[in-house]
Amino acid sequence: MVASRAFTQTVRSGRRAGARTLVLHFLPAVTPTASVLGWGGSPPRVGFVVGKAVGPAVTRNRVRRRLRHLAAERIGGLPESAALVVRALPAAAEASYAALGEDFDAALTRVAAASSSSSANSEGAAR
Fold this sequence. Notes:
The protein has four helices and four strands, in the order αββαβαβα. The protein is α+β, with helices and mostly antiparallel strands. The chain has one domain (4-112): Ribosomal Protein S5, domain 2 (2-Layer Sandwich). A four-stranded mixed β-sheet has the order 1-2-4-3, with helices on both faces. It is globular. The termini are far apart.
C-alpha cells in the first residue's frame, strides 16, 4: 500500500489494536470506500508507518524491514481486499525480531477478533 488515501482510510475506518512496539490498523473487507480505491477482489494490502520518533534512518529502515518480513509471513491469513497498516512505536527500535513478532501476532489476533465479532454483530442485526 502506497497511496496516502489508502493509509488514511484504513487508519480512520479500520479496527485498531496495539502492543508495546507497534499498533495495527485493520480494515477487514470491501467497503464502499474500498471499492472506490479499487480494492475489490484484490489480495490483502499492507502498509508501514515508521516515524522519526523510532530513531535515525538506519534504525527506521531496519524496523521497517523486520515488520515487512513479519507481515509477509502472516498475510495469507488475512481476508481478500483487507488493508493493514502497521505503525511502529519508538520501542520497536530496541526490540528484537522475536519480540516484534510476538507483538505483531498479539495485535493481529486482537484486531481480527474485534473485526469478526463486529461483522457477526452486523449480520445478526440485519436478520
